Amino acid sequence: MIPKTHIYTYSGVSFSPLSPSVDDISSMDIAHALSYMCRANGHFSGFYSVAQHCLSCVEEARLRGLPRHIQLACLLHDASEAFISDITRPVKRQLHEYAVIEKRLQDVIYRRYGLDPEDDAMLGAVKEIDDAMLYHEFLALGGLALYDEAPEIFSDPDYSFVPFEVIEKRFLHTLDELYTEDKK
Q: Is residue 167 within 8 Å of residue 51, measured between CB atoms?
C-alpha cells in the first residue's frame, strides 16, 4: 500500500509530489504521462498533448539557435504536470500553494537533468517560447488570438493528432539526445 501522500507512477514508483526526490524522477514517467495529457484542459478542436507541445518548444528553441541546455529546459518545462497535472492559468494565479508545490517539483526535475532552476536567462527563454507557442496553439486549435500581436515563431508546428506512443517515443528520444549531448 502506498502512503496517502504519494502517487503511483507509470514506472511503478511510489512518488511524493509534495517532497520529491531527484532519485524518483523517471524519464519514462514524464514522457508517458505528458503524452496522455491534453493541452488547454482538452478545450481544443483536437487532441494535442503536453508532450507534443514540449517537443514543439524544443524545435522552436533549436531554430532560434539557442543552446542545448535551453532546448532541454524547453522539453522539460511542463514536466511537473506529469506528477501534479495542470491547472488553467486563471485558477493557478489564485492558488499560491500550488505554485510553491509546482516550483519545488519543477526545480527537482531540472536538477535531475543537470539544469540550474535559478538560471534566469534559461527560464526567460523558456517562458518566451512557451508563451509564443501557446498563442499559436490557441490560434490553430481554438480559433482564438490570445494577445493583440502574434509572437513570431521560427518553426512550423504540426498540430495534428499524433498517437500517444509515438509522441512518448519522440519525447524519450529527444530527452536522451539532449541530456546525453549536454553531459559531454
A: yes
